[in-house]
Amino acid sequence: MTEQTKKYKKDLVNLFQDDDLKGESTTRKDKPYVGGDDIMRPLTYTPPTDKELEEVAKADYETAKKQSIKSAEDETERKKKSLYGSINEEIEGNKTRKEEISASYDSAQKNLENQTLKRGIQRSSAVIGGLKNLESEKLTAISQMDDKTKAYVEKLNKEIYDLESDLGKEISSINEKYENAVKTRLHELKKERDDKINEVIKYNNTLDLFYTPDKYEVGSDGVTEYPKEVDLETVNPRYKERIYEVIRDYSDMDDPEEAFYLFETNDTLKNYLGKYYEYVRNIIKNRQV
Length: 289
Known about the structure:
mainly alpha; single chain
């Protein structure tokens, strides 16, 4: 640090007055620069993650899936309940019919025995054979009824099994349709998100943002880095006025080294020049050469 620079630093100890006198310099050759708020603002957008979008897509169809599955299960249970009822009715009905047949044959046997007693032929071979035939017919009739009931119950049980099998297939179909719907919706949501990102970037790229990113409280994505070289023909006129003003103020100073030191120690310039600070700084710095 040269002696002259040390002198500059000593002279700048009391850079500005207190807040009530802000803007008035006592020992500096430059001034504080005050700029208004930028009328332009970049769009901000925090894109959802793929996982978050997947949860949204699932939520869109989760209720419908559950309702479809419950409806299928309820309908299956209703049909199964009806079939179980038919099975119980058949078993109870078969029991009653067998009791009726048994009672009918027992009555016939009793009548036959009474007739043979009156006639005194109860021990004849014809009577004994007749009683045996009645008993055989009774057992055959009961067996046929049991077979018929068994076949009917097996048929109903097969229908119950088919219902449960069909339910499993229907639930699988519902889940497959749900997964396909979620994939389709997730694709749509991702496209909406990507379109929004591109829209924000496209819009922000059209802006000639003046202040630093932290002024807008946004991240660095999509924000142009501060250039050291600027095509002034493309700069917004109201921004260009500030650039010219600062360059003129510091170029009018006789000592380029002092001018550069004052420029770097003027805390108001970064806010006043915004992203053009480095461009102007480079110009003032090169005057020292």
